[in-house]
Specification:
Layout (H helix, E strand, L loop, with lengths): L3 H15 L5 H8 L3 H30 L15 E2 L6 H5 L2 H4 L3 E6 L5 H14 L4 E5 H14 L2 H8 L4 E7 L6 H14 L4 E6 L6 H5 L2 H13 L1 E6 L4 H4 L2 H4 L1
Parallel strand pairs: 2-5, 2-6, 3-4, 4-5
Antiparallel strand pairs: 1-6
């Protein structure tokens, strides 16, 4: 069994590596430090690592671009039909991201698809994963502008650094051929490299009408489905059910 000082020095050695310090501090502990000095150094390094981790999580949340802050606490999955291969734990603990799997959230407007996607994304950030959130319309505009300005590759590199890309409101507005091609690039370049979450009220058979190309739609679906899970939202619109206008 290791002594108290032996355990302290092992921790200090590990912490030094994590903060990119040499092992000089460990040698000084062995040669010169008192127990209290070692304990103080241990506390300093522990607090520094905790501070860095909190700063990293805050940066990941900011860079993700979530439209609102919504967690999974209290989220009701009772009206969401989940496939047996995807457990709640896989979503909450980002197992699907680790395995580079995709999730398609399908259902009527207002049934909680965006909430779930944001909650999963925020949880992923807290676990140290890089996430990017876009509405599909917003992403197409940004990609098209970058293509015109000659900065497309730079933007794609930035987006594709993410471990998880969330594409909200897929199929809500028609997309021209160039936009569809740019979206296909995101899907294709992410295949088996990172995870994608898509929220949509459009069944797969109708994707071709929105993308103006049935073959391209089929190729997208093929890549998403190969390592993917389909969640079906069966409830009524939460917003309509709780709308002030309706009650008035």
């Amino acid at each position: 069994m290791k002594s108290q000082r032996g355990k302290l020095r092992e921790d200090i050695s590990n912490y030094c590596r994590r903060v990119s310090f040499s092992q000089t501090a460990v040698r000084l502990c062995e040669d010169e430090a008192t127990l209290k000095q070692e304990e103080f150094l241990h506390t300093v390094l522990t607090k520094e690592l905790e501070s860095r981790e909190e700063s990293r999580k805050a940066r990941l949340l900011k860079e993700a671009g979530f439209p609102v802050y919504k967690t999974l606490e209290g989220y009701d999955l009772s009206k969401v039909r989940c496939p047996p291969a995807l457990s709640r734990e896989d979503m909450i603990d980002a197992g699907f991201i680790k395995n580079k799997q995709n999730i398609v959230l399908y259902g009527k407007v207002g049934t909680g698809k965006t909430h779930l996607s944001v909650g999963v994304g925020i949880r992923a950030c807290s676990l140290g994963y890089a996430v990017r959130f876009f509405t599909v319309a917003e992403l197409v505009v940004r990609l098209s502008d970058a293509a015109r300005n000659g900065t497309l590759e730079k933007l794609l590199r930035k987006i594709l650094k993410a471990d998880l890309i969330i594409l909200d409101e897929w199929g809500y507005v028609p997309i021209d051929r160039q936009g569809a091609q740019l979206l296909f690039r995101i899907i294709s370049d992410s295949y088996e490299r990172r995870s994608i979450i898509i929220t949509t009220n459009l069944e797969f058979s109708k994707w071709g009408t929105v993308l103006t190309d049935d073959q391209m739609a089929a190729a997208m679906i093929d890549r998403l489905a190969h390592h993917g899970h389909l969640l079906i939202f069966e409830g009524d619109s939460y917003r309509m059910k709780n709308a002030l206008m309706k009650h008035k």
